[in-house]
Amino acid sequence: MRIEVAGENALILYLGEHGEPGVANRVEQASRLLKQELGEKLIDLVPSYASVLLIFDMFRCDHLDVRRGIRKVMANLSDESSEQGRIVTLPVYYGTDSGEDLEQLARNAKLTIDEVIQIHQAGEYRVYAIGFAPGFAYLGDVDERIAAPRLSTPRQRVPRGAVAIADRQTAIYPAVSPGGWNLIGRCPQRMFDPDAQPTMPVEVGDRVRFEAISRNDFFELGGSLDDA
User: Fold this and answer.
1) Cβ-count burial of 14 within 10 angstroms (0-12 exposed, 13-18 middle, 19+ buried)?
2) Domains along the chain with CATH numbers
3) Omega before 47 cis (within 30°)?
4) pLDDT-derived band of residue 81, with 50, 70 and 90 as boundaries?
5) How confident is the model at residue 115 (pLDDT cuts 50, 70, 90)?
6) Diameter of the chain measured on Cα atoms
7) What are the DSSP E strand ranges found in 151-212?
8) What DSSP line would sit under 52-93, residue for residue?
9) Cα 21 from chain centroid?
């Protein structure tokens, strides 16, 4: 563990060097306990792969107060696996018309398209971090049989709802944006809605499962194969 200054009213707590299940468990536990310990002193708390960013209210506390809170929490942190996160199931329409890279990914992996789909939806993926764009959840770890490097030339426009793989991570694009991940399907569920409560269906520490749906079900659930 180490604590570093990240601004006049921010500290960052590092719990490891790389994102892995054991470190992710500690990040999830620490985040939950720090919210309880520091309460209204916090303006925001942002967990990531191996760290927790704490932004605090300078009218209520200072760096030393927050450091004391961090050390108190860390002294009581358990090494046991945390199962606090929810299990969230998200529907996906897998296909060559919804995932432009599905066929090529299968070919490179020496698998059939159906095998890629079965392997992808058989996994349970931890939400390691949310970033890049609101609602963009980094999920891992993808089965090494279907892991695929990022595209050599990113697309200028990836559609909202695109389900993608990059290395051993998978994600759903919450909005139209540039991107270099391999597209294998589409999810009809909005990953970020500023008018909804909560605004995102997942948070760090949750576990995600994907469930294959038909083309018709995809449209009935509000999905679109347009770029919007």
Assistant:
1) middle
2) 2-75 (3.30.1360.40), 87-220 (2.40.100.10)
3) no
4) low
5) very high
6) 59
7) 155-158, 162-166, 169-172, 177-179, 182-186, 207-212
8) EEEEE-TTT--HHHHHHHHHHHHHT---SPP--SPEEEEEEE
9) 13
Question: Which pair of tokens denotes residue 130?
Answer: 């949310």
Exposure letters 167-179 (e unless 16+ CB within 10 A, then b): eebbbbbbbbbeb
Amino acid at residue number 187? C
- Tokens at 166, concatenated: 């990059």
The number of helix segments (H) and strand segments (E) in the chain equals: 5, 13
Q: What is the pLDDT of residues 117-159, one digit of tens each?
A: 999 999 999 999 888 889 999 999 999 999 999 999 999 999 9
